[in-house]
Amino acid sequence: MITVYPVPMENFTAIAIHVQLPKTDLLILRTEGGYVMCGALDIGLLRDKLADRGIVAARAVGVRTIDELLHGHVESCTQAAEALGIREGMPVREALARMQRAASATAAQA
Predict the structure, then answer these.
(1) 83: Cα separation from own chain's centroid
(2) What domains does the chain contain, in order, with CATH numbers?
(3) Largest alpha-carbon pair distance within the chain?
(4) Phi, psi at residue 33, to the nearest 5°?
(5) Alpha helices (H) along the chain
(6) pLDDT tens column, 4-33
């Protein structure tokens, strides 16, 4: 089953995506500028093989629900996320806010 729903944040709304699979779940919080995902996200692949795409993404490990992801901390992230100031140990909420702010600033310039 796939569940998609809005998650109100301080100044924007993130989108939660929960994919239930046999023996595991995929958890994603998406903004207009990037996303944070559970430990299933292969940050190494994004950093090494797909770095040229400029994907803004971060991973939090040890989470089993969207709420735990939302209240978790960044374990690793892409170079494009680092360029926004996202770092290991940062609260996921703060990482999402930085992603959204970057997307809003880009949209305002267009």
Answers:
(1) 14
(2) 2-104 (3.30.1980.10)
(3) 44
(4) -105, -10
(5) 43-48, 66-70, 79-82, 92-109
(6) 999 999 999 999 999 999 999 999 999 999
